[in-house]
Design brief:
By secondary structure, this protein is an alpha+beta fold. It is built from four helices and three strands, in the order ααααβββ. The protein has a three-stranded antiparallel beta sheet, with no helix packed on it. The longest helix has 10 residues, at 3-12.
């Protein structure tokens, strides 16, 4: 099975052969690209390019794919949410029966 076939099998809930490795090293890569010398093999490469070179699958999160987040948050009717937007920053406040958090 190719990496693509394994990846699709995971999303379909189908069996696949071997181990489907999805390491999460984007923070390590970003830090090392900014503050250290990387191997010439990876210097200037994007995270998806490094994943491809290593033959592993990246986790398909919204910040790399532009797809909607796979995490869905639902709150009961007793939770009130309000937002304060200032200087391009959003602070979200949650009012619950146990108190308020922002």
């Amino acid at each position: 099975m190719t990496l693509r076939e394994k990846n699709l099998a995971v999303f379909r809930g189908e069996p696949y052969d071997g181990v489907f490795l999805q390491p999460r090293f984007e923070p390590w890569l970003a830090w090392n690209q900014q503050f250290r010398e990387l191997s010439p093999r990876y210097k200037g490469k994007t995270a998806p390019e490094v994943y491809d070179d290593l033959g592993v699958s990246m986790r398909y999160t919204d910040y790399y794919t532009g797809l909607p987040s796979v995490v869905r948050l639902d709150y009961g009717p007793e939770v009130k949410i309000r937002e304060n937007v200032a200087n391009g920053e959003t602070i979200r406040y949650f009012e619950t029966p146990y108190g308020e958090r922002g």
